[in-house]
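Memo to structure team: turn this sequence into structure tokens by end of day. - J.P.
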Amino acid sequence: MALLSGRGNRHRSDTAPMVAARRRLLDAGVFDPVAQALAAAIDPEAAVVVDAGAGTGRYLAAVLDAAPRAVGIGLDLSKYCARAVARAHPRAIAVVADLWEPIPVADGTADAVLSVFAPRNVAETVRMLAPDGRWLLVTPNPGHLHEVREPLGMLEIGADKLDRLHADLTAGGLQVRGSTPLTATALLDAEQLADLAGMGPAGFHRTEDELHAAAQALTAAAEALPVTLDVTLTVAVPAAN
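Reply from structure team:
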């Protein structure tokens, strides 16, 4: 089921081609290590899981499989993401919502909140979290996709990104319970490299032809290119815990 907020917003949301590109990569298992880490970190007794910036719902579905009593609420600004989330798992519902506005989830009801490569509204997340809830955040490290970021026109990652995240969490009344690096290597062909760039902000700034040309150039010497996944899974809880 998908719900619409009925309100306009000033932010750009993922387009249908961007969501399709993300789904192809996720279906190919490229980001399975991230999904597995999230599933391992969830409390199996969780009853309500909110995925803030849910994308296709793939990560939410992995967590719901590991928490068999839970209902999942996938929040995303994109109606195309919401449609994907609504089909991602039998216990998932989708809500089109701007994460920078008040989020339509009741105070203290979320046993877990997921933020996976997504914007983070600390105040709203603290409000939603149950007293013993946990916030699971996946953020890229400087080495993430380093082989292809520049040639594919992808955003750079600041060296202090993780430190700034932890400072924001602490300032917002949260305690960092754990911070686990996760690295893996994916072998991607030209089509997958184009999808990798096209599913993110580069999809707004470069045409499909430009992305495919850049991806073909990267694989001119071989059919596929090893690409590094380098992220950190941070677990934060209300400071009173």
